[in-house]
Write a structure and sequence with these properties.
This protein is mainly beta. It is built from 8 helices and 43 strands. The N terminus is likely disordered.
């Protein structure tokens, strides 16, 4: 227990934080003038002591907390009194204190504070704050007089001289600072129930009662007689009855009319998903009386897109991904509608009729920063394993007749029924999955658990061929949206190199199988060397032809180094089916030097062979072939580009 001789000296009058009223202090912006919104007056009130005060009661001491609710200086029954024995726990703060509804029933001004009384009867008080309780609408809930127009006719001449149509409102009873006057424009009498076209708030009780209505508001209705009525509302939100209508004649140029509901092509299938988002989602707007400079503001659910210039009608407004998901990934539904803003006008048209939009952008597995793109590099990658080669992401001939399977650590929050499908090569094609796995959480399928796809058929691996970096990947599918995990590069070596047919020489002498002076085209123009078609050829396969001459037939004598040549060609889809013919056309260097120093030699020759590559993968090579070459004529002459003559 503290020493009673020093307790008062130690504490003295406490410094207390101001009492808080959440419905005023915890809103944005805070209501600083103390007016309690009228919709809270029938539901009770809560006040808050934000924190434990310094010098609070210790062991053997106590504090009494009282909330004071004073009207006109008179105090009734305190709405809250409680004794707290020390030590007082800081954990009960902020201390929330209810104010019963019966304290709110009578209009008037309230002075609110709280006080702390200690065991010595010393009282400390917080700073009072003023609250205003008001249930009575302006003008004592009697309808106000109708507003008065400044002119009898609103036309273009008037609006060129006046940006607003300033209506005058008669004085009313009970006027206070920050009262509002809501105004309603219509071409109907009596007016339909509708939202106000705007309001004016009067900062002071002495502010002139003038309601300036933007002139463009009157363009929104047909020319002829239009009407305006008003409704008063005070600072506490008490609405009064509406006034009678005042009428005026209107003769103005038209505004955009007949706004049609937006057309959403992506909704053709009944739902917008990620595939539609990747293709691009648009809202097509269409209306009459379009003019250059018109702008559109699209409301997509709770998101506004625009203002965007309308260059023609119909006009497509792009809906970006961030707008598509602003109301969540779904599945969900909302409405889309739009307004048109005429150039120079600060007043939009009424909203178009709405179009229902339904969407589902959820995915199986974690989402990623590049959404809605199909490839998700954040998904775990697949691992390939063959029981013959026993090496991760490596398959070779030892795996034939053995089990080959893929496994993957599961992604975030797997759900029953989600489907994983495995693809072998051709990234990112989704034509032919080779294995699959369906999520079953009752079987222990949780995030991080490693699951195995169904086995991969050997023939699938053989048909895809050898590859140093074969892309293997999988997709996730939740019934609506797919994702593709990034590739695992797998080394595949399951097919022995192929042996292709020998190179062919269409221009040789078919009787002697020799390239000679009778060849067509002539040797000095070029030598065609044909690669015959083969079922193993594929589009983009690279064919490499090698050529070198020898002094004698069948590669005999000596090779002639300067005649060595390598020609490379990438096959088109048509050439992969029909074959390809190379042109060896550097006659002076690659053909003319091919001859024998022996005048009795039957002929010289050249070596021709080609290899086929698919990326870095060697597919096979042709059989070696030596073609005979002989340019000699009788009398020691040679054929050539300059006719018959001696060969130097």
């Amino acid at each position: 227990m503290s020493d009673p001789k020093t307790a008062g000296l130690r504490k003295g009058v406490l410094s207390l934080k101001d009492i808080e009223v959440p419905i005023l202090d915890y809103v944005i912006p805070p209501i600083t003038d103390g007016y309690i919104p009228n919709w809270h007056l029938d539901s009770g009130l809560e006040v808050v002591i934000p924190e434990l005060w310094d010098g609070s009661a210790e062991e053997g001491e106590f504090n009494i907390v009282r909330v004071r609710w004073l009207r006109g200086g008179a105090e009734g029954r305190p709405p809250y009194v409680r004794r707290f024995d020390g030590p007082i726990s800081e954990g009960i703060f902020p201390l929330k204190i209810p104010i019963a509804r019966d304290y709110l029933e009578t209009d008037g001004t309230v002075f609110l504070h709280y006080e702390i009384e200690d065991e010595t009867t010393l009282i400390s008080r917080s700073t009072p704050r003023i609250l205003y309780l008001d249930r009575t609408p302006p003008n004592n809930n009697v309808k106000p007089l109708p507003p008065v127009f400044p002119v009898a006719i609103i036309d273009e001449d008037y609006l060129r001289a006046h940006a607003t149509v300033d209506l005058t409102v008669a004085f009313y009873n009970g006027r206070r600072a920050r009262d509002r006057i809501y105004y309603y424009v219509s071409d109907k009498t009596p007016p339909p129930d509708a939202a106000p076209d705007g309001y004016i708030e009067f900062p002071l009780e002495t502010t002139p009662l003038i309601v300036p209505i933007p002139g463009d508001v009157f363009r929104l209705y047909p020319n002829g007689t239009q009407y305006v009525h008003i409704r008063l509302e005070d600072r506490s939100g008490n609405p009064g009855p509406r006034s009678d209508q005042a009428s005026v004649e209107v003769d103005l140029l038209g505004s955009p009319t007949l706004l049609q509901p937006p057309v959403i092509p992506a909704m053709a299938g009944g739902l917008i998903n990620r595939h539609e988002a990747r293709l691009g989602v648009v809202a097509r707007v269409n209306y009459t009386n379009w003019q250059p400079g018109d702008r559109v503001a699209l409301r997509w659910g709770n998101t506004t897109i625009g203002l965007i210039e309308v260059t023609k009608v119909p006009f497509d407004v792009d809906v970006p991904w961030l707008a598509l998901i602003d109301d969540g990934l779904g599945p969900a539904q909302e409405f889309a509608h739009y307004t048109i803003w005429r150039e120079g006008s600060m007043v939009p048209t009424f909203p178009s009729p709405g179009t229902r939009i339904l969407w589902d952008f959820t995915v199986a597995g974690q989402d990623h920063a590049n959404a809605p793109q199909l490839i998700n590099t954040d998904l775990p990658r697949v691992r390939i394993f063959g029981e013959g080669s026993t090496t991760d992401n490596h398959i070779d001939i030892r795996d034939k007749d053995k089990r080959i399977y893929a496994s993957v650590a599961l992604y975030h929050t797997p759900r029953d029924g989600e489907l994983l499908e495995l693809y072998w090569g051709n990234f990112p094609s989704l034509d032919s999955p080779v294995a699959s796995y369906r999520i079953d959480t009752s079987n222990g399928d949780v995030e991080g658990a490693r699951v195995e796809f169904s086995d991969i058929p050997w023939q699938v691996i053989v048909d895809a061929g050898n590859n140093d970096r074969l892309p293997v990947y999988y997709t996730t599918f939740n019934g609506v949206n797919e994702q593709i995990a990034y590739v695992t590069e797998v080394t595949v070596a399951v097919i022995a190199p192929l042996i292709f047919r020998q190179a062919e020489f269409p221009s040789w002498d078919h009787l002697t199988s020799t390239l000679n002076c009778s060849s067509i085209p002539p040797l000095w123009d070029h030598i065609p060397i044909r690669v015959a078609p083969d079922l193993a050829f594929r589009r983009d396969d690279v064919v490499i032809l090698s050529w070198i001459g020898y002094t004698e037939i069948w590669g005999g004598g000596k090779p002639i180094p300067e005649t060595a040549e390598t020609i490379t060609h990438s096959l088109t889809a048509e050439e992969a089916i029909n074959g390809y013919t190379f042109k060896l056309d550097n006659y002076a260097e690659k053909i003319a030097p091919i001859k024998s120093p022996d005048p009795t030699s039957p002929a010289s020759s050249a070596y021709a062979v080609y290899t086929v590559w698919r990326g870095t993968q060697f597919i096979g090579s042709s059989r070696l072939y030596y073609v005979k070459i002989d340019r000699r004529r009788a009398g020691g002459l040679y054929c050539g580009p300059d006719g018959n003559g001696p060969e130097l």
